[in-house]
Amino acid sequence: MSNNNTEFETQLAHQLAESVEHIDAANLSRLNQARHTAIEKTNKQRFALPIWSTGVAASVAGLFMIYLSLPIGIGIQHTINEPLASIALFEQDELDLYEELDFYEWLEQEQQHG
Amino acid sequence: MNEALNSFLAKHERKAFRMAQLAVGNSDDAHDIVQDAMIKLVNKYAKRPKEEWPPLFHRIMQHQITSWYRKQQLQQRWFPWFSNTDDDSKDDVTLQHVHDPAGRSPDELLGNQQAMNKLEQAMTVLSLRQKQAFLCRCLQGLSTEETAHAMSCSTGSVKTHYHRALTTLREQLDEVWP
Question: Whose CB among A1, B9, B150, B159 lies 3.0–4.6 Å from B58's, allowing a Cys bridge?
Fold first, then answer.
């Protein structure tokens, strides 16, 4: 407060300060309890996930379910069929190889006869 | 963090409670106001620098008191049969000095208690803004600027409210403090 306090203001301030100093035990106990409640609530909130996180988790789960149920899933089958395709390709290579072998055998015979 | 908050609240809770008690005129509502203010400070501003806590707490307190008044006015207007009387709560204020730990004589206690009762009675004449300005300045010891921040108004308004409050109280308490 400013220095030019009147005597009246000083008396009032003193009276109020006295009443603060002499708050009864019951009220002090309730104040103490209120303070601990406030601090405890903060601790609980600190470890609790925010409300929006539940919504985000639900949305992600929903999108994943939709992804699995849509024909987009065919993409997954492609990867499953890929080994079969590679086997088919391998078999085709083998046929070419056999044909080439026949050619070399014929060439060898021709060279022997020739 | 918790220890710092705990010690800050422990330091300010008494004045905050007394301010709320004098502003609203009953202990139960004063406790609710202080607890709500504590929770709001802790939830919203705990991570702010410690130096900012006192002005924020004063501001929250004033906001809580103003909200309480508005609720009361609404309740009295629309549901007048629910309005509670403050007689019970006044008793615990007047009987608080039955045993004085400071060891003052019964005459001193009685005189002090009577003066306090008269001050409380005189304060009932003040408007809410006058009470807030008076309590911020005289009870909390805030400057005009700090009071203006707490009350969310200009320093000019604080000076006006405070001056009017003092004038009214001087008239009312002329016998006690001539």
Answer: B150
Top residue of B22, B42, B100, B175 to mutate, by most chain A CBs within 10 Å, is: B42
Select from A35, A84, A1 the least CA-distant residue to B57. A35
Burial (CB < 10 A; 0-12, 13-18, 19+), residue A65, is: exposed
Note the residue count of chain A. Answer: 114
Reported as a single tens digit per residue, the pLDDT across B2-46 is: 889 999 999 999 999 999 999 998 999 999 999 999 999 999 998
With CA atoms as reference, the chain B residue closest to A43 would be: B2
Structure tokens at A107: 């060439």
User: Rounded to 5 degrees, what angle do the CA atoms B119, B123, B129 make?
Assistant: 145
Question: Could you give the C-alpha distances from A37 to B33, B38, B39, in angstroms and in order?
Answer: 14, 9, 8
pLDDT of residue A2: 47
pLDDT higher than 90, residue B55: yes
The SS3 assignment for B171 reads helix
Distance CA(B118)–CA(A48), nearest Å, equals 49
Minimum distance, in Å, between the CA of residue A50 and any CA atom of chain B: 13
Binding-face residues of B in 90-109 toward A, CB within 8 A: 92, 95-97, 100-102
Residue B13 structure tokens: 């809770």
Question: What DSSP state is assigned to residue B118?
Answer: H
